[in-house]
Amino acid sequence: MQAVLVLKEAYKRKLSNVKGIEAVTVKTFTWVYLTLISLGLLTFAYNAIVSLLG
Q1: Which of 1, 3, 23, 29 is most buried, with most CB under 10 Å away?
Q2: Are 25 and 12 in contact, with CB atoms under 8 Å apart?
């Protein structure tokens, strides 16, 4: 997890002089992060329901 944060920080610094691209990059990172969390929660809930019913 730490490595990902370091990479993101380096990437943001590299683009810091191009504000528009940086904003899009941050939005994309946020969208991907939230999507992964949602998928993880859905998978967890699905497995819980299946195990309860099964």
Answers
A1: 29
A2: yes
